[in-house]
Known about the structure:
Strand order of the largest sheet: 1-2-3-4-5
Number of strands: 5
Strand content: 15-25%
Distance between the termini: 58 Å
Structural class: alpha+beta
Helix content: 40-55%
Number of helices: 3
Amino acid sequence: MGRVFGFLSVIIVLGAGMYIYSHQAQSSSAALGAKSPKAAINITGVRTDLLTIAQAERGYFALEGKYASLDELISSHALSVARQRPPYSYEVETSGSSFRIVATRTTADDGSGTPAELSVDENMQFQSSQ
Length: 130
């Protein structure tokens, strides 16, 4: 009788753990603006790429005194990030004292809840638009 009770306890605890895990995965996806874990992974990768490009812009500005286009960052070896992470492509907008890096979704909305556009500026502030 004791073994059966112990086995049932383990099953109940595992079930509760799986429920909490799945609920946590769904809520973390929703926090990123995505409706699925795959979309959340894509958005996280895009945000990481945007931060990497922004840090390269800051480094380039410190050395050259100006902000650079994405092509200039790549050709000067200040950056090794690809120009895109499907379904997003990257673009750098610069002015004399600021920059904005934009990731634009290149495909139609597939219902995953991913934003149409993510961007980061020289203050490392993220913006998104549907």
